[in-house]
C-alpha cells in the first residue's frame, strides 16, 4: 500500500489505466463535459507493467501460450479504450 501512487502513475503512463473527469457544469457553459487528463501513453511500457503484477506473472507461468494471447488482447483493449476516450473528449458542444 505504500507504493499505490507510484503504481497508479505507472499504470497511466503505460496506458493500462486512463485518467479523465466529467464535469456537468461545463455542459451548461456549452463546453464538452468529458475531459481527458491522461497524456498519450507509452505503449512500449504496457507489457512491463503487466509483468509487475502477480496475477499476470502467475498466468504466464501456468499457461504461457494463452497468456501471450491475453496480454496482446489486453493491450489492444487498452488502446481501444484510450481512443474512445479521445473521441469523447474531442466532441463539439
Description:
With 93 residues, the protein is mostly helical. It has one domain (4-90). The chain has five helices and two strands. Strands 1-2 form a two-stranded antiparallel sheet. The longest helix is centred in the last third of the chain and has 27 residues, at 64-90.
**How much helix, percentage-wise, in residues?**
55-70%
The helix/strand series, from N terminus to C terminus, equals: HEHEHHH
Beta-strand segment tally = 2
Biggest β-sheet: strands ordered side by side in the sheet: 1-2
How far apart the termini lie comes to 41 Å
Derived from helix and strand composition plus strand pairing, the structural class reads mainly alpha
Shape: elongated
Mean pLDDT: 95
Q: Pick out the low-confidence regions.
A: none
How many distinct domains? 1
Largest sheet: 2 strands, antiparallel
Gyration radius, rounded:
16 Å
| Strand percentage | 5-15%
List the helices and strands and how they pair.
Layout: H1 4-14, E1 20-22, H2 24-28, E2 34-36, H3 46-50, H4 54-62, H5 64-90
Antiparallel strand pairs: 1-2
Helix pairs in contact: 4-5
Amino acid at each position: 500500500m505504500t507504493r499505490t501512487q507510484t503504481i497508479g502513475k505507472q499504470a497511466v503512463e503505460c496506458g493500462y489505466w486512463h485518467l479523465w473527469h466529467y464535469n456537468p457544469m461545463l455542459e451548461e457553459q456549452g463546453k464538452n463535459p468529458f475531459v481527458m487528463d491522461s497524456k498519450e501513453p507509452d505503449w512500449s511500457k504496457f507489457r512491463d507493467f503487466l509483468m509487475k503484477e502477480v496475477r499476470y506473472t502467475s498466468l504466464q507461468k501456468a499457461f504461457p501460450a494463452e497468456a501471450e494471447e491475453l496480454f496482446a488482447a489486453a493491450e489492444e483493449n487498452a488502446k481501444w479504450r484510450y481512443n474512445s476516450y479521445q473521441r469523447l473528449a474531442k466532441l463539439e458542444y
